[in-house]
Amino acid sequence: MQKFAELGLSKPVLAALQDAGISEPTTIQRRTIGVILDGHNLLASAETGSGKTAAFGLPIVECLQEPGDKPRALVLVPTRELAVQVSSQFKIFSKNLKLKVVTLYGGAGMDQQLRSLRGNVDIIVATPGRLNDYLERKAVDLSNVEMLVLDEADRLLDLGFMPQVRRIISKVNKERQTLMFSATIDDRIARLSNEFSEDPVIVKVNTERVDAASVDQQFVHVTEFNKDALLLKLLSDFGAEAVLVFTRTKRKAGWVSDRLQDAKVIAEEIHGDLSQSQRERALKKFRTGEIAVLVATDVAARGLDIPTISHVVNYDLPDTPEDYVHRIGRTGRAGKSGTAVSFISEEQRHLVRDIEKVVGRQFESTGTNGAQPEARKVVPARRFRRGRR
Fold it and tell me: Model pTM?
């Protein structure tokens, strides 16, 4: 198998990878790092958890090498959580190069972010809305940007960020290198790639069939009325350290969190209506085990990377198979196995067929019987641990 040293990375970058315990490149990294180092534009697709941040992050720090006076790399992401995650990875990769990474996102105070933009800045990781705010204030200069990344371009498009993205790109050096990463490459993404770059190299990794072998996927037919009772029963069966529950709406996330707390399960919600500080506090509690269940919407959970998550519960199925794959990809990470249980209402049965096509397998499902929810045991039954005191 090809090693990082064979991909054209320098000793300082290789040393940073070694210090971080990252030994072998993933498929998306092997197929894209050389393309980027050769200066090509890129349009790439890969499933969640494939290592795409390093796929563009490593060649970016390799190309920049020495600190500069103006931003030379810009990464646009759809959510605050993903911005924080990508920035943390850049800091790991560039630890021996003294590059300055600045993170810009909404829901946080502007004063501190404005101070971070003063002086030399090499890499900016930003959400489109907040970066536009700073462009209007003339607080950031993008004219020297050499490398532009649209990370999760499909989500940027779905969330309506394209007008802001276009305004940002109009301020970027036209001689730049453009890298786009998306869960899938459909006609919309292909058109965007052609709009923002010329002759991109197209790389597709495992997009025909999703490899979800590390996740035990289970489906339970249930009425809306029975969902809360079934969730509590499953949590009791899991005996897990960390469970992530997905809902379709912010209102439903609050509802589920309240019902769990009523049942003495230590849980919190995370969604777009919370402030950044509230979201960060909830994530910190979840990471440290202070809370055992986190109830989240799709937008809030984008970029969420917590290896201890053992179970994902889809309280509501998402509208697209791609979002389903992203959700279940929150477990079964870092070589561990995981379990995903999805509740299927009568009106969502058709979504399961779409998911089966993407995942490449058919699923058996169980059902609930009247008001008494019954689900197949996913692990030997134990009392659910209700958080650390």
Answer: 0.65
